[in-house]
Amino acid sequence: MVEKVNKEKSILTFPADREIALETKNVQVYYGDNHAMHDASLQFPRYSITALIGASGSGKSTYLRSLNRMNDGIARVDGEIMYRGLNINSNEVDIYQMRRRIGMVFQRPNPFAKSIHNNISFPLHEMGIKDKSKINEIVESSLKQAALWDEVKDDLGRSALSLSGGQQQRLCIARSLAMNPDILLMDEPASALDPISTYKLEMTLSDLKDQYTIIIVTHSMEQASRLSDYTAFLHMGKIVEFDTTKNVFTNPTMKLTEDYVSGNFG
Ligand SMILES: Nc1ncnc2c1ncn2[C@@H]1O[C@H](COP(=O)(O)OP(=O)(O)OP(=O)(O)O)[C@@H](O)[C@H]1O
């Protein structure tokens, strides 16, 4: 039985004035016999940043990866994941198309061993876009959105692998943005970055939320409180609390949340 600290508030207080970008209904994830995610029901508000926080092994990555079917072939995922009225956790969904709308940025930057330009233009070619000026336009606009353009514009033919870790991560964000997504899923995108690169990445994400919905796993309480509008706290495969970040950090409903955000465990 989980203990509440604020009895008049419900566990999953939700601000009703926000449009919903993505909703999970009773999502369960099983790695074989390991029931890793229990009954995850949450609505992610559009044009905002939601942080997923919790101790190691609480299920943050498992949940995040379910949101665009990255657990396919690894785990069994039951329940509904509703995106624009469609349950994307169903066999009818074209996973490739869906992932263009719900992109993923991983913990370690994973640029292709190609030029900066090709990192973005190659997937566009694969999508059937052949018009060079259109491609150049998308390369430029996505690099600008990812706040990398000024640093690389003079040599787009340079290898992506010669960029710093922070620049590589922003290039991976640009590559996702070039697909014209609605939602960006990010699994600890700053964990391999130094403080200055982390700061730049956070600035970039803050700017992006005007146009995109961002869901980010982070181990850093400071990052969650600086960056996110909403926070979900996970514990042992369950979503214990979801609320505005301000409330989760200053006025949590659950004792478990209070202990975690105040550093008393985890
Ligand atoms: N590929 C996998 N195969 C089997 N079990 C897994 C796999 N990935 C995760 N798990 C299990 O699922 C549970 C949740 O793990 P998950 O990685 O989602 O937690 P997390 O909160 O993201 O942890 P961390 O903060 O350490 O990254 C753990 O019990 C873990 O051992």
From TrEMBL:
Record key words, sorted: ATP-binding, Cell membrane, Membrane, Nucleotide-binding, Phosphate transport, Translocase, Transport
Residues that span the membrane, as ranges: none
InterPro entries, per database record: AAA+_ATPase (IPR003593), ABC_transporter-like_ATP-bd (IPR003439), ABC_transporter-like_CS (IPR017871), P-loop_NTPase (IPR027417), PstB-like (IPR005670)
Organism superkingdom: Bacteria
Pfam families from the UniProt entry: ABC_tran (PF00005)
GO CC, alphabetical: membrane
CDD domains, alphabetized: ABC_PstB_phosphate_transporter
Domain ABC transporter residue range list: 22-261
GO BP annotations listed: phosphate ion transmembrane transport
Any one GO MF annotation of this record: phosphate transmembrane transporter activity
Name of the molecule in the record: ABC-type phosphate transport system, ATPase component
Species of provenance: Pediococcus stilesii
